[in-house]
Amino acid sequence: MSLRHFLSHNRWQKLFALLLATLVWFTVRQGVDRNSGPAYRTFAGVPIRVLTLASDLDQFRVAPSEVTVMLRGKPDSLAQLTTRSVEAYVNLANPAATPGKALVVHVNAEGAEVVSVSPATVSIERIASTTPPPRP
After folding, report:
1. Which of 66, 62, 64 is nearest to 124 (CA)?
2. Is the Cβ–Cβ distance between 96 and 62 less than 8 Å?
3. For residues 111 and 48, what is the distance between their CA atoms, to the nearest angstrom?
4. In whole numbers, what is the pLDDT of the chain averaged over residues?
5. Domain boundaries in the chain?
6. CA-wise closest residue to 123 among 74, 61, 70, 56
7. Alpha-carbon radius of gyration of the chain
8. What are the DSSP calls for 21-83, one per residue?
9. pLDDT tens sequence across 62-116
10. C-alpha–C-alpha distance, residues 6 and 106, integer Å
C-alpha cells in the first residue's frame, strides 16, 4: 500500500477523527489548567496595627512590629495584592485582651486565604497613657 493511497483512502473520516482528537485535547488541557490548584504567595514585613476603642487614646508598642504572611488563592488575585493591601492587626478592643499578654495576630487579605502568620502571637506594651481630663 502506498503512502498516497493511505492518505487519500477514507480521507473525510481521517480528517474528522483528527479534528475530534484536537477538540478533545484542548478540552482536557483547559480542565487541567483550571484545576491545577491554588497558588501561594508570601508577604514579608507586613506591619501590625493595634485596634482599640475610640475612647482609648493610649499608645502601644508591638514586639515584633512586623509579621510574615503566607496566602493561598487564585494566581490572578494574589498577583494584585501588595504588602499594603494585606492587613495584620491585634485587637485590644476585646475586653479579654490586655497589654502584656501574648495576643494573636489577625490578617485580612481580600481574595485570598491565610495559610500562616509568623509569628502568630505578639506582645503589646503600653508606652503612653493619655487619659482624657474629667468633664466638669
Report:
1. 62
2. no
3. 20
4. 84
5. 3-34, 39-128
6. 61
7. 29
8. HHHHHHHHHHHHHHTS--EEEEEEEEEEEEE--TT---EEEEESSEEEEEEEE-HHHHHH--T
9. 889 999 999 999 888 888 998 889 999 998 887 666 666 788 999 999 989 999 9
10. 69
**Which residue type occupies 30?**
Q
Cell of 44: 514579608
Grid cell for residue 3: 503512502
DSSP 1: -
Answer for the pair 74, 110: CB distance below 8 angstroms, yes or no.
no
Distance of alpha carbon 75 from the chain centroid: 10
Q: Is domain 39-128 in CATH 2.40.50.150, yes or no? A: no
Q: Locate cell 497558588: which residue? A: 39
Contact between 86 and 106 under an 8 Å Cβ cutoff? The reply is no
